[in-house]
Design a protein that fits this description.
Blueprint (H helix, E strand, L loop, with lengths): L2 E5 L2 E4 L4 E8 L7 E7 L6 E6 L6 E3 L7 E6 L4 E6 L8 E8 L15 E2 L3 E6 L1
Parallel strand pairs: 2-11
Antiparallel strand pairs: 1-3, 3-8, 4-5, 4-9, 5-6, 7-8, 9-10, 9-11
């Protein structure tokens, strides 16, 4: 069965960096656009960044642009999120997701993903 498993979350000081990974199995990974979302306790889930199935194009939320970088390794069936200059407001559970189809659908706001991971918690202290 299809699985998306996030890892790399933890507790860090503001200004430091963290790298998240999302390992996929049970699907043809190279066919899927990949997306990172995040959700703080008591708040709505929000889009963070998306990457095309081949890794050629990306789209970032304004709140993380210039600080976060998405990448993927299709041979390893893994997508990454490098998070630099972390701020307390970045504290959230981070989820990866996969979606087939046109790339712009991944950041259209409809949150319709084919598969979701269970999330990894990132806590940024002041």
């Amino acid at each position: 069965q299809v699985q998306l498993v996030e890892s790399g979350g933890g507790l860090v000081q503001a200004g430091n960096s963290l790298r998240l990974s999302c390992a996929a199995s049970g699907l043809i990974f190279s066919l899927y656009n990949m997306v990172w979302f995040r959700q703080a306790p008591g708040k709505e889930r929000e889009f963070v960044v998306a990457i095309t199935n081949g890794g050629g194009r990306t789209n970032y939320a304004d709140s993380v642009k210039g600080r976060f970088t998405i990448s993927r390794d299709n041979a390893m069936k893994t997508v990454y999120l490098q998070m630099n200059s972390l701020k307390p407001e970045d504290t959230a559970v981070y989820y990866c997701a996969a979606r087939l189809g046109p790339f712009d659908q991944t950041y259209s706001g409809d949150y319709r993903m084919d598969y979701w991971g269970k999330g990894t918690l990132v806590t940024v202290s002041s």
